[in-house]
């Protein structure tokens, strides 16, 4: 979870992620984790800037050969 997604917008100060969307995201992540657990896998969830968190995970794991990302479409920076 990138903390920058939960701050106010640049122009009007409205939250980028409101309470209903946040609840949906948290419930979705919880459901995904439980589904993966039933299949013998797991889900790594971290809070922080992705550019820092991913680097830390790669360092911790030590044997990462590929990392894939996607950019959120329609986001105005």
From TrEMBL:
Q: Which organism is it from?
A: Eubucco bourcierii
Spell out the molecular function terms from Gene Ontology.
damaged DNA binding; deoxyribodipyrimidine photo-lyase activity; FAD binding
Example of a GO biological process term: photoreactive repair
Where the record annotates domain Photolyase/cryptochrome alpha/beta, the positions are 1-77
- Output the superkingdom of the source species: Eukaryota
Q: Where are the transmembrane segments?
A: none
Keywords, A to Z, come to: Chromophore
Please state what the protein is called: CRYD protein
Keyword Transport appears in the UniProt entry: no
